[in-house]
Amino acid sequence: MIQKTADGIPTPQRYGAIVTIALSISISVLDTAIANVALPTIARELHANPATSIWVVNAYQLAIIMTMLSFATLGDIYGYRRVYQCGLAVFSLMSLGCALSHTLWMLIGARVIQGLGAAAIMSINTALIRIIYPTRILGRGMAINTLVVAVSTAAGPTVAAGVLSVAPWQWLFAINVPIGLAALILGHRFLPANPVKNKDQRFNYASAILNALTFGLLLSAIGGFAQRIDNTVILVEFCLGVICAVIFIRHQLRQQWPLLPVDLLRIPLFSLSLCTSICSFCAQMLAMVSLPFFLQNTLGRSEVATGLLLTPWPLATMFFAMLAGRLIGRIHAGLLGAVGLGMFALGLFALAWMPSAPADGDIIWRMMLCGAGFGLFQSPNNHTIITSAPRNRSGGASGMLGSARLVGQTSGAALVALMLNLFGYSGTHASLLLAGIFAAVAALVSALRISQPNPQRQTSSGR
Questions:
Q1: 454, 332 in Cβ contact below 8 A?
Q2: Which residues, including other chains, have CB under 8 Å from residue 294's CB and lie 6 or more apart?
Q3: Which of 55, 118, 178, 414 could bridge to 28 as Cys pair (CB 3.0-4.6 Å)?
Q4: Are 226 and 422 in contact (CB under 8 A)?
Q5: Alpha carbon distance 390, 392 (integer Å)
Q6: How is residue 9 annotated by DSSP?
Q7: What number of H helices and E strands is found in the chain?
Q8: How far apart are CA 221 and CA 301, in angstroms?
Q9: What average pLDDT values come out for the chain (463 residues) when binned by 10 residues?
Q10: 34-73 burial by CB neighbour count: b if 16+ within 10 A, else e?
Q11: Distance between CA atoms of 276 and 173, rounded to whole angstroms?
Q12: 127 with 387: CB under 8 angstroms?
């Protein structure tokens, strides 16, 4: 195991740690979306109805969202490396469990536990990056991580389609096992220990339960509303979720070490950056889920053509995320975010208002504009969220960053379902317009950060 030096870890070991994080975060993010493509096949082969099979996806996402902040707190207490490795082991083992499942409920149960492992990975991911990289190149590290998350999210359907074209659906989960084992071996050797541990901090089980109930009930109500299930069920879930949320927040205000980092939310730069993140990921998911329907059903493109036309988005994100990483510290994150999200919004509106029979080039430049704007915004925003928190609260900040991304993505996917239910075939057009609105709002919120000081100072003791 490599111990952390005063500022980052030595270069040879840093490369090993970077590869570990890239492997583990890519498979955990991919599994958020990869099962969507296989749902019809899974439902048919396991003799389940389509509505029930959706829980293969929902169970995984809910498990992550309901426990991410809890695992972030455990990382602050017991060490980021330990929680990360345990999560990776659980994720890999349950990937095998998913592949071996022969009933739908076995698969759903394995997905729940797999989601717990993914929550541990995602909650600690950014905190580890903060202690792996020296301060002077931390922005570059955030850019690499943003690149991995963005490409993994965008590539999910393509990877799933490729695997399913040559192998049964079980291999969507089985391929995680060798990758996870490789990441475990590399992590044991290269991941650093915590530079700071909160020795007086204790895990609060009441907070963890209230957190899970709050996120679970509210997001379940949002999903139910989008799917237009019984209004009574939705109302009961929403009311219970609000009650739990009020009790949860009041409970957190009395805690010295809150699970929901209320103290960090009092930092204006931190709060504004989180709001920006939620809105941007909601816009991203609105576009990513609706665009395949739009390209195939409205514009008549084939599945292969759709995959190719979506490719410029992650490619542009890759390039501009690395560019943004080099601009961190030179240009205020609020300004970079406002410009990037403004480009993102323009790209989304341009996609929504395309000609009725666009050429491939008309689609490609719009995709590139969306990807460029998203890449320019994301790295500086993540850097701001993690560095505006004290170093010994990196776990909490990392958990909030991951939670913001997942809440935005879950809300965006639910809104696409709602638009399709409300407007039928025109729902994809409405989804793209709504995505543009969310991106524009995110740009305005990001601009509000320009008046806040740019966090550059990082010390071992926090702020």
A1: yes
A2: 351, 428, 429, 432
A3: 118
A4: no
A5: 6
A6: -
A7: 18, 0
A8: 34
A9: 58 86 87 72 79 75 88 85 93 94 91 93 84 81 78 73 82 92 91 68 86 87 72 87 91 82 82 91 87 81 75 84 81 89 96 88 93 88 82 75 82 81 82 94 92 53 38
A10: bbbbbbeebbeebebeeeebbbbbbbbbbbbbbbbbbbbb
A11: 33
A12: no
Cβ proximity of 76 and 399 under 8 Å: no
- Both structure tokens of 283: 């816009």
Q: Are 280 and 439 in contact (CB under 8 A)?
A: yes
pLDDT at 458: 41
User: Nearest 5 degrees, angle CA 443-CA 446-CA 451?
Assistant: 135
Site of tokens 């895990």: 203
The residue type of 264 is: L
**What is the Cα 232 distance to its own chain's centre?**
30
- Write down the pTM of the prediction: 0.76
Query: At 434, which amino acid appears?
Result: L
Q: Which two tokens stand for residue 345?
A: 């919004």
Sequence-separated (6 or more) residues with CB below 8 Å from residue 120: 71, 74, 83, 84, 86, 87, 88, 90, 91
Between CA 389 and CA 127 the distance in angstroms is 11
Q: What does the DSSP 8-state code read for residue 256?
A: S
- Residue 253: CB partners within 8 Å, gap ≥ 6? 262
Three-state SS at 64: helix
- The set of residues, in sequence order, having a beta carbon less than 8 Å from that of 267 and lying 6+ positions away, is 388, 389
Task: From residue 174, give the alpha-carbon distance in Å to each of 41, 55, 98, 120.
Answer: 16, 19, 8, 20
CB-based contacts of 234, cutoff 8 Å, min separation 6: 221, 224, 225
Tokens 């943003």 label which residue? 146
Instruction: Give the type of residue at 165.
Output: S
- The HSE-up count of residue 433 (CA atoms within 13 Å, CB side) is 9
Closest CA to 160 of 148, 149, 171: 171
CA torsion angle for 80, 85, 88, 93 (degrees, to 10)? -150
**Bridge partners, residue 328, by sequence:** 331
Token pair of 333, please?
């994150």
In angstroms, the CA 385 to CA 348 distance is: 25
Q: What are phi and psi of 88, to 5 degrees?
A: -65, -40
| Side-chain half-sphere CA neighbours of 290 within 13 A | 34
β-pair partners for 192 = 2
CB 434 within 8 A of CB 419: yes
- CA distances (Å), origin 369, targets 170, 253, 314, 320, 403: 36, 42, 11, 10, 26
- Nearest-angstrom CA–CA distance, 41 and 50: 10
Residues found in the chain: 463
What distance in Å separates the CA atoms of residue 180 and residue 22, rounded to the nearest whole number? 11
